[in-house]
Amino acid sequence: MTDFQITIENCNSINQAEINIKKNSLNIKYGPNGLGKSTIAKAIVSQARDDGTLIGLMPFKNRDKDGAGQPKVSGVQDFNSAMVFDEDFVNQFAFQQDEVVKNSFDIFIKTREYDASMQEIETLFVGIKKAFLDNPEIEQTTKDLKDLRDAFGKSNKDGSISKSSKVMKAFGSGNKVDNIPAILKPFEMFIKSANPSKWIGWQIKGKEFFELGDTCPYCSTNLHKDEQKETALAVANEYNAAAVNNLNVLKAVIERLGKYFSDACQKNLDTITKAKTELTAPQKSFLISLKNDIEALIESLEGLKTISFYSLRDVDEIDKKLPLLKIDIGMIDKLDSAETRAVTNPINSQLEKVIEHVGAIKGQINKHKARIKKTIDENQESINGFLKSAGYKYSVKIISEPNSYKMKLIHEDLSGFIDAASNHLSYGEKNAFALVLFMHQVLSEDPDIVILDDPISSFDKNKKFAILHELFRGKGSLRDRTTLMLTHDIEPAIDMIKSTAGIFQGSHPSATFLSSMQGVVSEVEITNTDIRTFANICLDILGGEVDNIIKAIYLRRHFEIIDNVSFEYNLLASLFKKRRVPTFVSATENRNMTTQEKTDAEAKIKTMIPTFDYDLLIEQINDDDQMMAKYHETDVGYEKIQIFRIIKGKHEDNIITKFINESYHIENEYVMQLNPHKFESIPEYVIVECDRLLQLPEQQP
């Protein structure tokens, strides 16, 4: 496998970082917070995507300075695409109102194999599609038919047309636009204008001002006679602006559709649209029948226009379904015209050709359905298995939609699907879902590199392992992809390099430790032999060539880890508390050691530190100059802060004091650790603070 040697320069707090990434493998980079791991992720992604965002990582110290080093990333020329899981991804991760994640169809179903199969199926219907394309007038005709259908509104329970429908409001009481009442003949030019409803609306609005006097509110002339006022008010009495507007619109639609109506239908419609009086029962019956014919033609046209895998996937007997799609104009006689048949005949002809190959269509659709079902089952099983093993009470189900598929969320205590998942999921649950769905999105988009920026440190141990197991095991995972995991949590390295390494062999995991000094980030490989209990690490150091006080520091830690608080432990504790006369402290005692107890304890310590001499070392401990020299002699951060604690007791900053104390005692130690002689685990800022305080002059009491 090829390794990628990546160099990052002048990005945020990083002056230079050199890291190695193994191809088609999981690369774990473990290091403390504040080191610049997120910057590494952003720099690699910016360069891989070449989206111009790399300049945004310019260090503050270099900004507005001529000749200052520019952000630069080298070694990623083979990466043309990248996906990163980080806080920004989780924050923008949209749990939709009606599905777990936006575009769940694209992520979970729409694979290359899916697209290829869909293309094969769509080819079978290309003749029908072409018949629609060859007659662009069909689209406007269908729209007009729908407008006319909608004008009938929702039918009454007995099937009759509602009086509140646009059709009945326009024609139900007669056409008073073509048949103007005698009293309104003076206004004929306005009523028969191109937009009479606008004029009628203006007229009606002025009605309320007639009560103010005998002056016309429209022309300000005097109304001397009652009949003049009656004429002016007649518009409001005879007309409704909305009804007139409906009438004009419907007349225009009917005129456009005229050639598609049979001769008898056109004649009846002409009678109805020009009627002077209220419609008769036969005329209303005719309109009901026309509505039904229109709905039948629309349904047939829409069914053929949208014929596809989706429209046939739930049909058990496709060979029986297809012939039923034929448009039988003879059965919708009100629309039986030469123009209508000119539209439907070519479509019917193409349908006949499709029916000739119904066996192939049935086979293709069933094969595609089986493939989709397999994909759905695998994805559901994978995600639900993870949710169950991680202790979540949720599950997901991918269901079919009219033209797609969607992933829905289910809770074990609720029947039915959960709407608005984001309102119910906790922060941790959202993160867990986002991680697993991110994995599936990676499988869908197939980027050259995948970056996980501190993905699991916020989870408890069981959920961490469940997520790692989901992400890096099985064929539907990230195991064969070039993946960079940046983390301040050592547990992924412990699980994947040591304790359960056999489970994750397929992902080819490797781990390195990142450290930073003065803006230069370096890495050291972590092997499974490097991950050991700290008790064993202490024993390893005791066998090395280091200063006796350093050895004593590790031996005291070793005794504390194994819960040995005997005389030898107390002797070492007394040494670091600068007591020339050692003490013994237990649950029942707090006293000075006897000479014999001191001698016996010293003898036991010498079995591990042969040159141990309490009296000699106590003098060194109490000599600040000697201790300062030892502080500067070691380049191991862990040892520096132990010596600092001996010299100063505590730091002036309570937070740094807490960090030092937790490194001195074992309360927050992992069982498994890395050897601090090899892996610099103490953050640089803590060492800098200890250096600073040791250089300050002593405060006089």
Structure summary:
The chain has 701 residues and is of the alpha/beta class.
Structure description:
- The chain has 701 residues and is an alpha/beta fold.
- It contains 29 helices and 15 strands.
- The chain has 3 domains: 1-94 and 425-530, P-loop containing nucleotide triphosphate hydrolases (Rossmann fold); 153-284, no CATH class; 534-695, no CATH class.
- Strands 4-1-2-11-10-3-9-8-5 form a 9-stranded mixed beta sheet, with helices on both faces. It has a two-stranded antiparallel sheet with strand order 6-7. Strands 12-15 form a two-stranded antiparallel sheet.
- Helix 19 links the parallel strand 8 (449-453) and strand 9.
- The chain starts with a strand and ends in a 6-residue tail after the last helix.
Task: Based on the model shown, name its key terms.
single chain; 701 residues; alpha/beta; Rossmann fold; 3 domains; 9-stranded mixed beta sheet; 29 helices; 49% helix; elongated
Task: Itemize the secondary structure elements and their pairings.
Elements: E1 3-11, E2 14-22, E3 26-30, H1 37-49, E4 72-74, E5 82-85, H2 87-92, H3 104-108, H4 112-124, H5 126-133, H6 137-151, H7 166-171, H8 188-191, H9 196-205, H10 226-238, H11 241-257, H12 263-273, H13 281-305, H14 309-312, H15 318-321, H16 338-356, H17 358-389, E6 394-401, E7 404-411, H18 427-445, E8 449-453, H19 461-472, E9 483-487, H20 491-499, E10 510-517, E11 520-526, E12 532-533, H21 534-542, H22 548-561, H23 567-576, E13 583-585, E14 590-592, H24 595-606, H25 614-621, H26 624-633, H27 637-648, H28 654-664, E15 672-673, H29 684-695
Parallel strand pairs: 2-11, 3-9, 3-10, 5-8, 8-9
Antiparallel strand pairs: 1-2, 1-4, 6-7, 10-11, 12-15, 13-14
